[in-house]
Target: histidine kinase
Amino acid sequence: MRFDDAPDRFKSGNASDRFSGASGVLFEQAMAQTRMAICLCDPHAKDLPIVFANRAFRQLTGYSESEILGRNCRFLQGPNTDPEPVARMRKAIADEDVVVVELLNYRKNGTTFWNALHLGPIYNDKGELVYFFGSQWDVSDVRAARAEEQHAKEMARELSHRMKNMFAVISGIVNVTGRVRGIQGEAAEINSRIQALGRAYETTLDDASSGSIQISEAIRAVLSPYDRDEERLKMVGNGVRTPFTTISIIGLILHELAANATKYGAWASEAGMVTVNWYVDETDNALTITWEERGGPQVDSEAIEAGTGTTIVDRLLSGGRGSITREWRDTGLVVTVKLPRRDEA
Model:
């Protein structure tokens, strides 16, 4: 392999004399041929000039070899370059130390890029400082992704705040309407559903920026108020992710099941237990939630199935292309809910 990419000044001048033997040749070849942008600076010359910049460095910055050699790396800085990482670089050079910084640099055409710069000393076999090595990596896309993620989190927090206010306003309207019309019981029933939705959304908004959520957080948030002693509810699901659009359906379904269990089912008895499981059914790629009650009293299944809550659940699932099966076993109610996981559902 020939060392054709290196400038004559680097190959034949005093700088190249600081290396000797096969290791020096391999070093020079590696510096020239790597696709990572690299430059070497001479610590023994005034103002630490660049004595070598490989092809990748020139392509990254847009400058030619003649425009780079002999200049300090600061020529890549501009009006919006943060002085803090620059100060860290100066300290590392003074201490002959290694430093990694991210700073805003400018190309020849004036466009900017975020540079992840790795700066460090290079010594010869005698332990003498011969160069400062700098590798540059354009991390503009990485920075943009970080900024986008941070923005999404901020938006999620703001959305969470606004949704809490929205649910509070709706709840207040329902209460006022209930008192004016003398239907406080119906208003309380509606408000319980509103509160269940609020709990389901509140715990999942931060996660929703990724487009999907871990359904376990929503399930726990909706059901935890019904298990205040933490002894009558068993949740055994795993970290399944599902489209954020399913949260309303899941929240309301679980609320209706929990409300019925409290009035008529397992939680109407001191010995009653409810087990909730959730997983992805590999046969149809559907989010599957099972609800199993044990230890409750005998239930009038026909009365429950004719109730408002059952109608709400069935219509929600129909609109979401889901399904529900109810089995009235001797041990208690067993419900299986299936929801497609694809966003288009």
Notes: Residues 1-16 have pLDDT under 50 and may be disordered. The chain has 13 helices and twelve strands. Residues 143-340 form a domain with the Heat Shock Protein 90 fold (CATH 3.30.565.10).
